[in-house]
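Model the whole thing, not chain by chain.
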Amino acid sequence: GAVVSQHPSWVICKSGTSVKIECRSLDFQATTMFWYRQFPKQSLMLMATSNEGSKATYEQGVEKDKFLINHASLTLSTLTVTSAHPEDSSFYICSAAHRDATNEKLFFGSGTQLSVL
Amino acid sequence: AQSVTQLDSQVPVFEEAPVELRCNYSSSVSVYLFWYVQYPNQGLQLLLKYLSGSTLVKGINGFEAEFNKSQTSFHLRKPSVHISDTAEYFCAVSDGGSQGNLIFGKGTKLSVKP
């Protein structure tokens, strides 16, 4: 089946630094990718929808200047957490939409645990 | 606005016992409903989904779910669980326009004991 690779799986950084997370669709082209965040004991919350070649669409309450999303190719979307702070510590998951003539399926990455010191 | 409630955060069961993981949703429009499973250190995998048609949906690994519009529920069931079913299960809903924009429940951790 389709595979989505997300890297890194975990990262620890100092407060004030920026962290980039990559999401790749390995065997299909994904015109749309999604980024989610999950705080402990909370549900996954959609942060933004990333469309190849255009600006991402952010959900209400998500700072677009803090969470930079780039979807420069049909197989790669990146999320950069700029000037990270401890409150940004969370589990981030991406998904990629695989569409054919009759169906659409989402395939998820394995997630990135970000810890900001 | 749509929302999803998974009533149980943890469900412990013994191997070969039946299990039901509960999910209720709220929406003012027609919806698509999903169950995803996340095994340790892996991404979410689709178990099953309801788009339209028969309200009883069969998925992978012997799981099934029934869409009940009057009760706004989409409970997940398996008649006999295995140790390998130990995982976290997420119910999700999207509006009728897209299967990609999902609202997730908080998840239910299923622990199957020998």
